[in-house]
Structures are given as structure tokens and as C-alpha cells.
Design a protein that fits this description.
The complex is a heterodimer of chains A (406) and B (173). In chain A, 47% of the residues lie in helices and 12% in strands. Chain A is an alpha+beta fold. Chain A has a single domain, classed as Orthogonal Bundle (Cytochrome-c3 Hydrogenase, chain B). In chain A, strands 1-2-3 form a three-stranded antiparallel sheet. In chain A, strands 6-7-8 form a three-stranded antiparallel sheet. In chain A, α3 runs antiparallel to α4, α4 runs antiparallel to α11 and α11 runs parallel beside α16. The longest helix of chain A has 29 residues. The relative contact order of chain A is 0.18. Chain B is 18% helix and 24% strand. Chain B contains three helices and seven strands, in the order αββαββββαβ. Chain B is elongated and about 65 Å long. Classes of the chains: A alpha+beta (406), B alpha/beta (173). The interface between A and B is large, with 46 and 40 residues.
Chain lengths: 406, 173
């Protein structure tokens, strides 16, 4: 236990008099996973907070240097496990940007639908548990009911509820079926009612508003200089959304708005997430009705991806295709370059900086996790708030420790 | 530095080259992404100019690459700063090379305070020392840890690190 954590370097000796230190975590219900805070308190007012992270560090970036571009997707799944497919889409977006692969329209639309389903999935958990931590257990159940249905949609497409490993370089593991489309349509039909129930329980709840409004304020200047992105930055007045500013996938064809707020407090972050769910639903509705037909792999780039197993076992072409894409000495050529590409994940800008040495695996696969930069801003947000506000602020910035520590 | 011997690039390149004529800059681009290599001795001046002259107000990412096993590489460590101008949306990647034994660069926390944890992580994983950092220590790994695991000479398997840590029994804790 490093004791110097208890000694706030930012405070003078005479300021420390009368302060007391509180250890928060690593096992605390409001941290959801494992992260630790050492709080300096004056009575119940938080003077300073020192985050201590790394409890879930598992060497994902080291593993990225030994697994190939298709295999590593099983690891990126486990980074932000609240929205696994969003990580997969971000990872393969970076790989495809490095290799210069253009996706087929059908693949783009399916990925877009999944990216937005994951946004709803992530925001439902974040907003739901944020309310739960502040004492409202009912709304949380409404949120988790819908999350359950999104798991079923994932299972129908990929065979896995949680860690789907669904994307592949240049395409997807399987094409979607008609009943998957019916399930997404059913979700679009049912979600507005569940959303209205959830929002009705929380948005005008006086206890919730008083616990979150004006709490944990992050100014726009701090958000920009501190590297905040996504809903956290947008709640502070930054009008940047990679889906509009650097359009990828099918976002150029679809009509939606950026959701922003100005106050930068917990309630604005909550509101931004709630508004984004409405916009995501709008995107899914447009995309599912305009889902193009055609292949999911682009044949222009040669044989990418892993072929269907029936093709592999029953035809010589399929077997050759499988062999060419699996054997390490015969895989696709990758330029000896480095490239940074990012997508708008539910939590913020999720980027991958990939350095390639010409092999079909990364020489260095750097993850730019949004949680890391958001949690670094936490001491600024919590200063001069009350001890009970710690859980409100933690809930509003949605720290996922697996992504934080990788 | 005169612009005539290089191909004239984007506006960002022109403005940074004309405002810092003494700093050797090697510009390149890959799939529309602009990169610039700057000597480590001038990195802080250059990053300040990036923020003040060209308006890169956000440090998106700071990371390091170990080129030990890269064919044809001359320098060992490459520091990578990914910059973003939030209002305009332009990106720039600034790189600098470092070699052992001098793995020290000035900290960028005075330019963007968001560099704080990113620099601590780069130290944690690669052993790059950032001078002038306000709270410089390991971020993810325990303080007792002695190696830098993302370096290429650190094996992925076969080295138990248990010996680094003291064994605390219940009676001693």
C-alpha cells in the first residue's frame, strides 16, 4: 500500500490541519469495478482526491503485439465490456484505415446499427447505475430490461451474448438474417415506451436532480485541455462528435443531431446520455429500413476475412481461401506504416494507434481509452463537493476499469 | 528554414515551419494523416507552438513505440503525440525519437494538463522520464515494479514477477 498517496502534494502543511483521509475502494459498490480513491476531507467537504488505478491491468496492449488483427478482436471486446461491439468496430475501423480497405454498404450499415445499439446499451447501464448509486433502484430495472433484449440481438447475429467478436478485417463474422432484422425492428418499436418509463422515473425526480445539478462541474476549458471527449465533453459545451466531424461507416447517409449541454455538471452529463439514446434510436430506425443487400466482404480487396465454415469444408476454393487468411506467412499485406484512427464510442473517442511492420499483426497496438482521460479529470470535478457527491460524479463519467487499466 | 526544398504542404505545416525556422521538422503524410518528426531537444517548444500558433488545444493521446525489433529502424523509442484542434477538427501527429541512455524529455503537462496520466503511463510501460511532471510515478503497475513491460525485450511469457513484491502475512499487515 503506497503510503505517499495519503500525502497530498498540492496542499501546504498548515492547510492539512484538521483534514482527514478516507480510503474509497477498490471494493466499493459505486466503483462498479476496481478503482481506488484516496480522499482528503474537511468535515464532509472533499478537498482533494487522488485516484489510484491499475487493479485490472491485464497487459492487453502487449497481447495485441502477438495476436493478429482478427484474433485481437477477442481482447478488445473485454476492454469496455459494457459495449463490447463498439470496441470491435473501433479496432477494425483503425485496422481498415491503416490497410486502406473500403467496406461494402451492407457491412457499413450493419456495423452502424450495432454501434448505435451499443451506444444505447452503454448509456442505459451508465444512466441506470448512476440513479441506482443515488438510491433509485426502480429505474435501473427498466434500463436493464432493455439491455437484456440487446444481448439477444447480439446473440442472434454472432452467437454470443456478451463478448461477441463479431467484426473481422473488411467485414463481419456472419451476415445477418431476416429474423435479426425483425428483432431490431421490434426493439425500435418497444424501446420508446421503456425509455419513457425510465425517463419519467428519473428526469423530473426532485431527489435525483438535487443530488446531481451543479455537482461535479467540469468547465469547457478544462474539458478540452484535459482531453475529455464524448458525452463528458459534450455536457461541458464542446460541440464535437466524430460521427459528424469525421464521418465513418454509414453516418454520412443518416440524419441525426449532436446532443450537447452547457452546464458541465452531473445532471448535464446524464441529460446528454439520455438525449443520445433518442438519437441512436433514430439512427437505428433509418439504418434498418435502408439496409442494403449484397455481400458483407468487399471482393475488390481480394479475399479478406474468414470464409463460412460450410464453404471451407465443402469446396476447395473455400479451403484455399481459409488457408490463405489463417496461415501467418500467407496473410494479407499490410503497409509498413503507423496510423491513428478513432471512432465515437459511447464513452468518448476510442482510438487505436497501430504501428505495422508489414505482418498481419500489429507491431504496437495502442488503445486510446476515453475512461483514462476522464478519470484523470475526476479530482478537478470533485474538489469542494460533498463526500456523498463522489458516487454521483463517478456514476456520471462512466469509468470502466477494464478499459481504464487495459 | 526555407520552404523551397520541400513540397509545400498544408497550412498547418507552413505556419509551423515559418514560426519555428530553427527546429528541424520532417513532414510526411499517410492516408491524409499528417505527421511531423521533431528532435527531442525542441519538443516542448514545438508542442507549445502547436497549441499557440496552430490552435491544437487538445492532446488526444501520448504513447510510445519501442523499435527494437523493427527492421531498418535506427532509433529505439518513438514518442507519439496525437493532437487535435477541437473547433477546426484537424489532427496532427508529432513524433520524436529517443535513445538509451538518455530517455528524458520535458513534460507536456504545462501545455495540456491532460498529459499527466498519459506521461505516467508512458513511464510505466516504457521507462521514458518526463522532466517537470508534477506527480511523476508509475500509473498502472505497483511502485515496487522494476521492469517496463511494453518494451520489446520484456518477454510476454515466462517471467514471474512475484519476487518483486513482499509477502505480507495476516499478522504482519
Amino acid at each position: 500500500m503506497p503510503l505517499e498517496l495519503l500525502d497530498s502534494p498540492g496542499l501546504l502543511e498548515n492547510q492539512k490541519e484538521g483534514l482527514w483521509t478516507l480510503n474509497f475502494g477498490p471494493q466499493h459498490p459505486a466503483t462498479h469495478t476496481t478503482l481506488r480513491l484516496v480522499l482528503q476531507l474537511d468535515g464532509e467537504t472533499v478537498i482533494d482526491a487522488e485516484p489510484d488505478i491499475g487493479f485490472l491491468h491485464s497487459g492487453f496492449e502487449k497481447l495485441g503485439e502477438s495476436l493478429d488483427f482478427n484474433q485481437y478482436v477477442t481482447i478488445v471486446d473485454r476492454m469496455n465490456y459494457i459495449s463490447p461491439l463498439a470496441n470491435e468496430i473501433a479496432w477494425h475501423h483503425s485496422v481498415e484505415a491503416l490497410m486502406g480497405i473500403e467496406l461494402t454498404p451492407r457491412c457499413k450499415y450493419i456495423r452502424t446499427i450495432f454501434a448505435e445499439l451499443m451506444r444505447i446499451h452503454d448509456h442505459l447501464l451508465c444512466t441506470g447505475t448512476c440513479v441506482l448509486d443515488l438510491g433509485g433502484a426502480t429505474a435501473f430495472m427498466y434500463a436493464f430490461n432493455e439491455r437484456e433484449y440487446i444481448y439477444e440481438i447480439c446473440e442472434r447475429a454472432s452467437g454470443q451474448r456478451f463478448h461477441t467478436s463479431y467484426t473481422r478485417v473488411g467485414g463481419l463474422l456472419y451476415d445477418v438474417t431476416d429474423d435479426w432484422i425483425a428483432m431490431v425492428r421490434k426493439f425500435c418499436k418497444n424501446f420508446p415506451k421503456a425509455y419513457a418509463d425510465f425517463a419519467g422515473l428519473v428526469m423530473k425526480n426532485r431527489i435525483f436532480i438535487e443530488r446531481t445539478r451543479g455537482v461535479g462541474v467540469l468547465s469547457k476549458e478544462d474539458a478540452i485541455a484535459g482531453g475529455a471527449t464524448g458525452p463528458v465533453a459534450r455536457a461541458s459545451g464542446v460541440t464535437r462528435d466524430l460521427r459528424i466531424d469525421e464521418p465513418y461507416l454509414a453516418y454520412n447517409d443518416l440524419d441525426f443531431d449532436i446532443c450537447c449541454a452547457k452546464a458541465g455538471d452531473c445532471y448535464s452529463r446524464f441529460q446528454v446520455r439520455m438525449m443520445e439514446m433518442e438519437q441512436s434510436l433514430k439512427i437505428i430506425e433509418q439504418a434498418i429500413e435502408n439496409l442494403p443487400s449484397g455481400p458483407i466482404y468487399n471482393e475488390e480487396h481480394g479475399k479478406t476475412g474468414v470464409p463460412d465454415k460450410t464453404e471451407v469444408y465443402r469446396s476447395i476454393e473455400g479451403l484455399i481461401h481459409h488457408f490463405e487468411n489463417i496461415m501467418p506467412n500467407r496473410q494479407m499485406n499490410v503497409p509498413v506504416e503507423s496510423f491513428y484512427a478513432a471512432t465515437e464510442s459511447p464513452n468518448g473517442e476510442l482510438g487505436y494507434y497501430i504501428v505495422s511492420d508489414g505482418n498481419f499483426r500489429a507491431y504496437r497496438a495502442r488503445t486510446r481509452p476515453p475512461s483514462l482521460l476522464h478519470f484523470a479529470l475526476f479530482p478537478r470535478m470533485i474538489r469542494n463537493c460533498m463526500l456523498s457527491d463522489v458516487v454521483a460524479v463517478l456514476g456520471s463519467i462512466n469509468i470502466i476499469a477494464a478499459e481504464l487499466d487495459r | 528554414m526555407a520552404l523551397d526544398n520541400t513540397t509545400v504542404g498544408s497550412e498547418v505545416q507552413i505556419r509551423l515551419q515559418s514560426s519555428l525556422p530553427d527546429v528541424a521538422q520532417t513532414w510526411s503524410s499517410f492516408q491524409g494523416q499528417e505527421r511531423v518528426v521533431v528532435p527531442a531537444s525542441h519538443i516542448l517548444t514545438f508542442l507549445k507552438a502547436c497549441r499557440d500558433v496552430t490552435g491544437f488545444d487538445q492532446l488526444i493521446d501520448l504513447t510510445c513505440v519501442d523499435h527494437l525489433e523493427m527492421q531498418g529502424a535506427v532509433d529505439r523509442f518513438e514518442l507519439v503525440y496525437c493532437l487535435l484542434s477541437v473547433d477546426v477538427g484537424t489532427r496532427l501527429i508529432v513524433k520524436t525519437y529517443l535513445n538509451e541512455p538518455n530517455l528524458t524529455v520535458p513534460s507536456a503537462t504545462q501545455v495540456w494538463f491532460g498529459a499527466d496520466w498519459l506521461e505516467r503511463e508512458a513511464y510505466d510501460m516504457f521507462g521514458i522520464v518526463f522532466e517537470g511532471h508534477p506527480n511523476f510515478k508509475r500509473l498502472l503497475l505497483p511502485d515496487e515494479f522494476v521492469s517496463f513491460p511494453l518494451r520489446k525485450d520484456y518477454p510476454q511469457q515466462g517471467r514471474g514477477e512475484r519476487h518483486n513484491f513482499p509477502i505480507i502475512t495476516r499478522s504482519k499487515s
